[in-house]
Design goal:
2 copies of one chain form a homodimer.
Chain A: H1 8-26, E1 31-32, H2 34-41, H3 45-53, E2 65-66, H4 67-77, E3 85-89, H5 93-101, E4 110-116, E5 125-126, E6 129-133, H6 137-143, E7 148-151, H7 155-167, E8 172-175, E9 189-192, H8 195-212
Parallel strand pairs in A: 3-4, 3-7, 4-6, 7-8, 8-9
Antiparallel strand pairs in A: 1-2, 5-6
């Protein structure tokens, strides 16, 4: 199927739509117009119609969107029916926290393994995941085809580890290393976590709050 | 000054604009039209004009936006000239990682202290921050007025700590506890980190990649 390239920002808004639809579901809302959805999300109705039209026909003129149906379609578009397998590479602070708190299974991801170089960490468990030796990672990945690697190693190891997992067939890298990764393998998606966007949003509200006083 | 309420999603896009403008600056781009900026960011030109018009007059018909000027204005709007002070409460995995890797000063935030309940952590240092006893936190905050608290304590302590810092005058809470906070103090902004949005974006690309094969 040929399709146009959909911009990254449209994709990023999909999970925001998903959260909003979950919230509407919790509130018992069964359908919503693009104008009301736009109002609640700070987007113009035309932006919403344009975003969603990238993926098919969802709404109905004069009727709006069915919340449950749109939620289901978005979850599918976002890959939540794929049951992607995930490994965590680097069980330092961030890696440990993600295993412990991320609740991958609630989003339909299958966390299967974790790796670290530290002898102190190898063999220990975080929830039901036992940390394996990073030296065994590539052998393990060859036997256990894996979709996503969470990259939570130090900056200095980022490129080496990213290239290693990519060569073992990993197709998605969730990058917490705060550095840009240069991959030698094509067809691998890298998603970088931008903590600063969130901090600056908070900072905006504080600044406005100060000036409004 | 009276102003209209600006939607949260507009605010969230500001830091994306900022990153884009930094990238354009690095590439030596001095001005850009709303249509080109829209193309690069996956937004319609009218969305961009609408977003920015919330804050004043930036662009010029037929000329576009001056990159350096717009960057400066956005940084100001985002509070980067306020030099907000920040404390980290909870030096577990996430807290430790943020102190070590977040580079608050590069965004013009002033990281001043960190607190934890664990006797093993109290007195240890992360970079130049010495972890203090959480029992001393409220006394310390009363003497050192603080703008932002990074909340990286366990879920079970989230509400108690959030209310404690709010009562000491903290006006912004950056919430990494994966739980909704109920505050008894008014006028405090809470910013929640949504890791799942980022993971689902990656998941989307993987799914599309699979289906395009």
């Amino acid at each position: 199927m040929k399709r146009e390239r959909i911009s990254d920002n449209v994709i990023r808004r999909l999970s925001m739509y998903l959260r909003k639809l979950d919230e509407l579901t919790d509130r018992g809302v069964e359908r919503i117009s693009s104008s009301e959805l736009g109002k609640q999300m700070g987007l113009t109705p035309s932006q919403i119609r344009q975003d969603l039209s990238c993926f098919g026909e969802f709404g109905q003129q004069g009727f709006g969107y069915k919340v449950a149906e749109l939620r289901k379609q978005l979850a599918k578009i976002l890959g939540m029916e794929e049951n992607f397998s995930v490994v965590v590479v680097g069980v330092g602070n961030i890696g440990h926290a993600l295993i412990q708190n991320m609740n991958f299974s609630s989003l339909h991801f299958d966390l299967t393994a974790a790796f670290d170089v530290s002898q102190e960490k190898i063999g220990t468990s975080v929830l039901d995941i036992t940390v394996m030796d990073s030296n065994e990672m590539t052998d393990w990945l060859k036997v256990h085809p894996t979709d996503i690697a969470v990259l939570s190693v130090p900056k200095s190891a980022a490129n080496e580890v990213a290239n290693a997992v990519a060569q073992c067939g990993v197709k998605g890298i969730w990058n917490f290393t705060n550095t840009d990764i240069e991959l030698k393998t094509d067809g691998v998606f890298i998603e970088n976590i931008h903590f600063s966007d969130s901090l600056l949003t908070l900072s905006y509200y504080l600044t406005r709050g100060k000036n409004d006083v």
